[in-house]
Specification:
Layout: H1 2-28, H2 34-42, H3 78-88, H4 94-106, H5 120-155, H6 160-174, H7 177-188, H8 212-250, H9 253-260, H10 265-283, H11 285-295, H12 297-303, H13 309-318, H14 322-350
Length: about 350
Amino acid sequence: MGAYIFRRLLLMIPTLVGIMAISFLIVQFAPGGPVEQIIAQIQGQDSGDRLSGGGNDLAQMGGGGDEGRYRGAQGLDPEFIKKLEQQFGFDKPPVTRFLDMLWNYIRFDFGESFFRNTSVIDLIVDKMPVSISLGIWILLFSYLISVPLGIRKAVKDGSTFDVWTSGVIIIGYAIPSFLFGILLIVLFAGGSFFDWFPLRGLVSDNFAELPWYEKIVDYFWHLVLPLIAMSLSAFATTTLLTKNSFIDEIKKQYVTTARAKGLNERQVLYGHVFRNAMLIVIAGFPGAFISAFFTGALLIENIFSLDGLGRLGYQAIIGRDYPVVFGTLYIFSLMGLVVNLISDLIYTWIDPRIDFERRDV
């Protein structure tokens, strides 16, 4: 197992480099970079205050560039454009910038945000609690309900219970989480009907003044609608995955043999079927983990104004804050690779018959 883990860790290196290289290449062709945005602001074309709190004092800039490369730069001092380029690091060739970025990321040095007066790692740490809160509760909610429900549906396959729950699950899976989130806001957050839940934020403005028990209530009160919206598709996927996995195992010969030995259905189900059927559910855990903590939260965090990693990444992409974009991408990709490795190790813990040591990576 040690050799397998070592090989997987080595493979993470080219994988990360490939992800970053493709993303870096795409960014080179994306219009509206930070230099163009500063130029647009100076020319009065951008009303957004992108420099607020960013510490970007234009008088301190210096470097090289060509004003003809940027739309809207006509009429500006070429030396000023050069200073802008150096401020954002665009005075170097793309290959040099990419290699410098990789060298810094290996040492977990993600630099500073273009438009915020703070480092990328501090931004990520600051937003992490919100995403962790959402991710942990979504995983617990979806797995603690979906796995038992999926087992029940497998045992009652074809029954009335299985049919009507499948209908509800399929409808839930078909509804996009962001659309369902908007519906919940309209219905229950003061939109057009009831005003039962808060519209934005993870806690109330007076959270610090509340006693500990009211803090707990306030925290979960704010989480109700976002969690329901985000867990809808995860709930459906995990339930159907569990059901189909258990049905496949129940039909196998070893289950018939176990029943012939006099074991009751509960002993067969949890003593023999469970370990084999749960393997495929565990295989889907890394994807659920990454989705719950990062990608799945992007739209929901924006809809409910939750200041987490998803919203941070979205704002960085819109604002062309490249250090934040690449820093979060690198961390998310690295975590995804590590979680996939952990998933394989859990395979061997649940079923010792699986030996990755004897297989090619």
